[in-house]
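Project standup — Tuesday

K.O.: blocked on the structure for the chain from last sprint. Re-posting the sequence here as requested.
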Amino acid sequence: MRALQLLVLVLSSLVGAQQQALMDYLERRLLAIEDRISLWHEQTSRYASELREFKQQMVAQLEGLDKSKEALRSELDTVGTRVDRVEREMDYLETQNGAQPCVDVDDKLVEQQVTVVKERNKAKYAKLTDCSDMISSIKAMKILKRVGGPKGMWTKDMGGATGKLYILNGTDDNTVYEFGTVREFTSSQGTSGATSVQLPSAWSGMGHAIYNNHLYYLKQGEDMKLIKFDLQKNIVTDTAVFPAKNQLPVYSLNPETFIDLAVDEEGLWAIYATQENERHISLAKIDPKTLDIEQMWDTPCVRENAEAAFVICGTVYVSYNSKLPSRSRIQCVFDVSDMVTNDDAPHVYFPKRYGTHASLKYSPVEQLLYAWDDGYQILYKLQMKKKLEV
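H.V.: unblocked you, prediction finished:
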């Protein structure tokens, strides 16, 4: 009996040892599995972090490539435009210096052909314009401030792109003063509150224009160059030689201005004069995107005693010094659509002023005239009526 008990005890000991060994084995396996799971988690986290970093790098590189693509496309467009410009200027020079015909042409026939072309141009332009406003009177006058010298130009963006205000003081400078609003301009001391924009070259005269975030100004040299300057990027986006030979000052009272750029409801215009039409002022329509000259007109408005001009709905208004003391008036008008004649248009007097208007800039958005008068910045509120009411 005792031997049997001893045998049972031995067997129990053996079973307990095996169980303990099995438990130890299982514990070691579980620890090894936990170590591998922990290592797998670490590797997964590292791979995920590296993948995120790689994704961020790729996104940044793709954005950089997109910017480079847009910049390259813009440069290619600019180069293409300039190539077209060179070709047009070469064509223009060829037409000016072409060989004389070998046969005689009847002068009357040539005159008839020129008349037909002019009439066709007028008819074409008349179909493109819907605006029919013209000046009836000067409704009000407001003197905002006195900044700068006797001659200069101030204006908003006449395309209505922003509410910013720009001061271009003098007839030969390269610093444009930019104010965020009219209130900032009137409340600042001089130009202390303005942002200074440096142009790559000095302007000539007072005939500048700001239209759709671009400054259009003239640079005088061997040729009169029209320069288009991006006010947001501060770079020149295009230049063109103005295709008119032997230019003269467009206004006898402001001989510094050879070309006066104007903006109206129809876009960008150039008011100028040449020796070919010495006594009178000429008008040209400009494509603001390409600087191409779309059409040209000779007006009946004389240069003598003229001080400034502006355009409204395709009608140019020329201001002259009046016989009355310190007064000027709109004495000549020319309408490209022939809806208004100089005889029918009202003779509008400006209120009493300080000197000669150095510049008059029309805002089609506000129907205001921005005038520079002996260093004073003046606003004229215009009373308008329809051309058909004349």
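K.O.: great, moving the ticket to review. The CA atoms of residues 15 and 122 lie 117 Å apart. The radius of gyration is 38 Å.
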